[in-house]
Amino acid sequence: MAYNKRERLKANIDAIKTVFMLEKEGRKPSIEEQALLKQYAGFGGLKCVLNPASSLTDTVHWAKSELELFPLVAELHRVLKKNTANENEYKRYMNSIKNSVLTAFYTPPGIVNALSETLRSSGIIPKLVLDPSAGTGEFAHAFHQAASHKSELICFEKDILTGKMLSALTPGHKVNIEGFETIENRYNNYFDVVSSNIPFGDMNVFDAAFVKQDQLHRDSTRAIHNYFFIKGVESLREGGILAFITSQGVMNSPNNTPIRKWLMENTNLVSAIRLPNNLFTDYAGTEVGSDLIVLQKNTGKDPKLSFWENLFVGTSQSEVTGIYNNDYFYNFSRIVQTKASIGTDPYGKPAQVFIHEGGIEGMAVYMRKMLESDFKSYLDLDLYNGHTVTQKQPETKSTAQLDREEHSPGFGDTFSDDLNPFWQTDDLDPFWQAIEDHWFPDGKEFWNKKEETVAKVQPGKNTLNAEFQNPPFDMDDSGIEKVLITEEKPQSVTQEPLITLYDLFGFTEEERSQVKPVRGGKKKAAPSKGKPIQLNMFSSNGQSSENNNRATAYPVSDARKDEQQERFRQEQRQKEEKLSFETRPFTGELKEYHKAGSLVEDQGQIGYLKERYRDGSTFQPLNLPSTQRSKTNSYIEVRDFYHELYNHEAKHLTVHESLRSKLNQSYDSFVRRFGNLNDKKNLDIIKMDAGGKEILSLERSFDGKLQKADIFHRPVAFNPNELKATGTSDEALIASLNKYGEVNLDYMQSLMAGTGKGREGIIADLHGRIYFNPIIRNYEVQDRFIAGNVVEKVEHVKKYLQTHPDDLPAQEALKALQEATPEPIRFEQLDFNFGERWINMSVYEEYTRKLFETDVTINYYASRDDFTVKADRNNLIINEKFAVKGESKLYTGMHLLKHALLNTTPNITKTIQVTDPETGEAKDVKVPDGQAIQMANSKIDEIRSGFSDWLDQQPPEFKNNLADIYNRKFNCFVRPQYDGSHQSFPGLDLKALGIQDLYQSQKDCVWMIKQNGGGIGDHEVGAGKTLVMCCAAYEMKRLGQVNKPMIVGLKANVHEIAQTFRTAYPNARILYPGKEDFTPKKRVKIFNDIKNNSWDAVILTHDQFGKIPQSPEIQQQIFQAELDSVEENLEVLRSQGRDISRMMLRGLEIRKQNLEVKLSKLADHIKNRTDDVVDFRLMGIDHLFVDESHQFKNLMFTTRHDRVAGLGNPEGSQRALNMLFALRTIQERNGKDLGATFLSGTTISNSLTELYLLFKYLRPKALEKQGINSFDAWAAVFAKKSTDYEFSVTNQIVQKERFRYFIKVPELAAFYSEITDFRTAKDIGIDRPEKNEILYNISPTPQQEVFIGKLMKFAETGDATILGRGKLTEKEEKAKMLIATDYARKMSLDMRMIDMAYGDHVDNKASHCAAKIAEYYNKYDFQKGTQFVFSDLGTYKPGEWSPYSEIKRKLVEDHGIPAYEIRFIQEAKTDNARKALIAGMNEGRIRVLFGSTSMLGTGVNAQRRAVAIHHLDTPWRPSDLNQRDGRAIRKGNEIAKLYADNKVDVLIYAVEKSLDSYKFNLLQNKQLFINQLKTNNMATRTIDEGSMDEGSGMNFSEYVAILSGNTDLLEKAKLEKKIMALESERQAFNRSKSSAIYKYEDATRSIDSNNEMVARMSKDLLAFNDNVQIVRDGNKMNPIRLDNLESKDPKVIGEKLNQLANNARTNGEYFKIGELYGFKILVKTEESLKEGSLFKDNRFFIEGEGNIKYSYNNGHIAVDPLLASKNFINALEKIPNLIEKYQVDIQRLEKDIPVLKEVIDSVFRKEPEIRELKSELDSLSRRINLSLENRNKPDEQIVNNGTDLPKENLPQNNSESINAVSDIRSGQPMSLKEIIDANKDRIIIASVSKPDENMESNNMKQKVSKGIRM
Known about the structure:
7-stranded mixed β-sheet, 7-stranded parallel β-sheet, disordered C terminus
């Protein structure tokens, strides 16, 4: 049967359709359907399924040879999409299929049958069979059919689709659709036979049990086949058989020697057979080598291995081929084959290839013969039969006992445990006590006597059990037959001790003896007046007299018979009790909420689940008193009804009233009999249950009383309420969007029925709000229709109007879309990065074809965001022009091309020798080769920049098409104009809030959230985000858009949020647990309260939210999707053979292993989940409002740009990961993006790279549509990387990279603004003060001047001893500039931050700051104005010196300010202390408050009296600066409004020649760009973020220039750096040119030499052709003549030649021995070395006039005489081939000559740039020297250091000191305008809109003249 891809693919699709249909209909397959399912053979060899097939345009990615399969692959996608619930499930199936392409090779049935039948005929008939990698079940079917009895068959299959096929084909057996590693430990030493075709491929496996064992077990998990062997053997019982078909690597690889040795030590080798490579050809269309290995478990065998076992362990490498082979196959006798050759394995490595030409049938016959022989010789049947697992043994029971059990009613038959009042203790529930007193007034005495009687008969036994066993009728001995009935019973008869509540709770004997007395004492029973009346099935009509009752129920009988019966009953009871409390399998129905430790009832007994497996559990009965047994029964009923109800409603989202009724009834019954669940007397039973804590949450406390949770009255997993009528069209529209997700006019009309408004009236009301969308043939709301990709919508509407020209609604819709369409961006305006993923790979292939002058194939794999490149052929352009030589590797043009596509640089290393600091010995270490890296980067830049040049050269049509594609993908988004003014907000108490109405911005934001289902509320501090959250949450709940919203806020703010919510909506149901309520003990109850109640809002802190367990299933899904992607990448990489990076391969393998560990832990957690904690998914939260969302920005991401600074930590934080899990839970439930609302005034705190993380949270599907599924793919479109080169401490070139430039920023802004409502305080019109920024310049102190010089020297040399500290460590050397930056910051703040040896100085920052604080203190003393002082360096610590405490000291001692009015935020250790500080500031009792950004910058509303903010240092992020300023510049600042012209002064203290000014202006510039992006009003398409960050400091040249205080020096440093980089590049260019010259000269010489050789060989060929004699049949005659030999017989001549070959000795000279056609025959003796010994080797040649010696067979004579005589004629016949070979070589070299000539003649293209830069540098140096000369001249003018504070307001006693300060230069304030003018080349200010020039000019003049205002 020939392999046909089309037929195989079609058969697979038919099978998939069938299995989905069966699953949907819930039935077993018919015979015809079984046949279809059996045709499924996986996708092994069908690589076409890896190609995209979503639309016809995807055919461009397909090879022509496979295009015919495109329709079938497209159909496969359709079938899977149709039968999967969501996109994630569809992807799982597709990933499963793709993963199987290189691993799913199904075994032909003939081979499997041969194995199973041979085992059967040898006496192996297994009862317990395991197939650990079952596929479609060939092995399982074969062994099941071979068994003559019922066998237990367990299968594992990890592939989802294959597992479904297997389940359908084997309905009676256990099929686990998961990996073999998940098998439970109870199956160790269990199976008779383990047999399978185990997975191929070097994949890792995670098995927690193996990780804890020895090294061999741990190592085995690194290769899946090794793991399967060890795990398989351990699953076998002694004597069991393992038969695996596996890859040849198990036996061949020397790395697997320890595994093979372990196998031989623990098993007997029965058989090993090498199978042919074409075994799978008919089923998978591929050839792959495999082995059949059969082992028999024998752990007690002789440690000495047999001959064959020793061979099995060993491997040998062929000296000829280098191929490793197992010694067991030292000859071909153990191989099924008819033909052998040398080929390659699936990964491109050399391997032996064996083919059997007899087909599957022939292979099976061959294999069967070997198996029969092996089994006969090596299979130990005694070992197999001697260790069979013993099944359960029968026990005997008498028929009488059975009859009594089945037919005889006892008391329990009449009254159940729950209802029989006699089965309760004396201390009855009042209700049941009343019943007993009424119906059985005399019963207690009788029961007391009866208990005493039974106790006498059977002391120590439970009285109630005795009564229960004693039937209420006569039992005659004659009625007892002695017939034995068998019943299954475990073999062991050892009884476990009875388990009681004491045992369960772990009470000691002493504790057990402490019996709690009954309250109130126990009443003595009154004398009985008669026997109790027991109503049962034997009563007549329910009536009975006392005498009648005695006669019927207790007949008098013979005493002997009574004794016999009693003795018999006692024996039976003893036997039953002996068995009844043993652990046994649980026979009841296992529910998903059953866990280990759950209380359950089984066969009338109460107990708990001791072990919980997937498909079974063990039950441990408990010996409980009757009251506890009854209570437990009742509790179990409540618990089970609760879980059934919640799970049903959560799963189906439908109300189940019957279950709710049963829950209420069971709960009411429990409470009536035993009290509330949370009563102390019930806690012992309920907490004994594994899920008890959750059940306790079914009651909640309200005003001190326990009430039923909401789940008793209504669903809590979803919102069942639905609007029935509305009053306005707007409300009807919202209701329609809620219920149907679209405009449903029929539904809206039904809601408006009461108003009498019809369809047309509703449309008219909503004109401009809804538009007709022809694409869906329905109306859509404006915010949805005129949004998103409007370009695509315009085209669809136009096509519709071509066939419907009179459709007026469609015309209106088209007009609205066209008006909203963004203006197309022209090609000339676009920036293109080489490697952008959206550009078709054919464009890159065209460019690289021109660049490298050969065809280049480029493929992009989106799942792993990676490219593969391959040249059709190599040439000098690839191997020379665009190549870089490393120490051990040549990085060719193809290597650099891939790096160019990824925008990365190769890590080229070199070896240097260093001295080990510990041993003093020299050692070699690998270090980056800076020059080679720079050269590589230069060539990569040439490739990347050349792409833009190439694009510019393309025809206009090409350019327009590319621009059009870009516009369609990126410039097509429109943000809807959200207008929420129509909302009425029912239930909102504006009066209680003290406001007249919400801001319009708040209404718009709420409307956006309601329309989109979430978004980003990017509102400035003080804009009312809290009320937005409260109103949006309540509105979404009211309208049914969400069921249970959660608000997450900062710890400092969350109380205010909760209070605002309560005030705004006084009737809202809010859950706000305080700190005391969220302790670990109370936390579980809170989680259950969230789950079991319907809240309008749940409010938690960030920390509390982080403690919510996230759904393991969601985590598993996210990690599994990533693992599927990794596995797919691995298989694709391995399929490329040698064309892969080992580093990338290893990296993926490690990543896969880590993911598998996480997944295994999750799977283990899910399987063994015994706690009662509710996770996020079960809580039913369906929307998150995240206040201060920037706190979660540290989300993990994957990137190759590991050397790029400023990206943050790719590992992310657990807090952010938890948020991602929660959002994915909600998004999966909703089936769309968002699902959350992020609120923050600083959504982008520092860099535009943060946008990607925002989109990853909220818009994963939208990113996917743009072809962006990783950070690198996003950066390839929107970011440009800058690279700087500096010299390190060791004078090595160091590369510094960062994403400094962002391109296509308007489109990025549009994508952000589409889901964002951005408002500034000015936009909103908030009445808050303006910010008056003052940059306060301070001259450096003498000590600082000296230290600045040291810092510059340190930055240049790296010698840390200059700074007075030890030498830099190896790790510190890499962070030299970060250390230098940190020192500069400390130096600027206070020299004592560096060393306390430095003293105080009148002109340092602390002194100036103290003076300014005192100035404002005195100015606003009457109003008690307050001030904030910020610094992130040197924060306050009690008892230690710090800049904080130093300034306070100066304020107190130098300026007379009371110490109690100066406080530090760090002093507030508790929330109450913090509130007290804030209150003190607002009341004016505290006048100055110090703090850091993190502690004082957020959550502090102390603005009432704030007049000034002082920044001692500048923070790293613009957002931090905004947060600081927001403490005073916010609504509610009364003093600034009334007494400071509604302004707050913000002073930034900057020491000259420090980093202060530069850092501040960098932040200002960044903030400007961020604001422009948020407003979607960019003034440019590209922005520069600067080159300074918290993680790496700033670059060397700018650092030195700034510290020097001369901006010209900065320019000089920049020029020097550019020149240095260019000269280094020129040096590399010259080296490359020298190499080309050498190769050119070598090629020229080779051409001349080859031409000469061709001429000489042509001469010989001509002579040969002239003299050769040809016979009739066309063959050439061979008239060879040997000297001293007369014979012409070829045989004689051949024998003579052999004699010469053995005996001739020419001492290395050529010796003539004969002639042929005038050519001389020569022999030469050469010495050779073989295996360490010298030997003589004679070689023979033939030479003509060209003096070229020709040979055949390398000059060696054949042993056969006839062949030997033809040696020389054969040599002459090779001349034409030799000539052709030289001519081809000449042609190749001649083709390379022009390329080499071009390189030689080329000039360094940047030479003019170097000359120009050097000229500029000379000019700048002269200017600097001139300025240095002028510096020595005295200043002609002193700049006055005044302020705008009126002098009359200054206190008289301080005027002298202030004037003194004002007279010195150090206090000179400097406006931003002056700073910008001084740094024009370094600071760019982009404007949002163009103001009036005259007005701007006048304003600026005013600002400059005042000196301090901006």
